[in-house]
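Regression test case RT-17, inverse folding.

Input:
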């Protein structure tokens, strides 16, 4: 029983370290591009 608890604790620690590493090192920024579109105004 204690062996399973240690295994789950070790997996949780590894998962947390992986999540933190991905948050800092993963490139999650969106691609940016300039967009030009004509706009029609209803001015009377």
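Golden output:
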């Amino acid at each position: 029983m204690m062996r399973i608890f240690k295994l789950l604790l070790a997996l949780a620690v590894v998962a947390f370290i992986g999540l933190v590493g991905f948050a800092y090192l993963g490139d999650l920024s969106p691609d940016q591009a300039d967009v030009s579109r004509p706009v029609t105004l209803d001015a009377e």
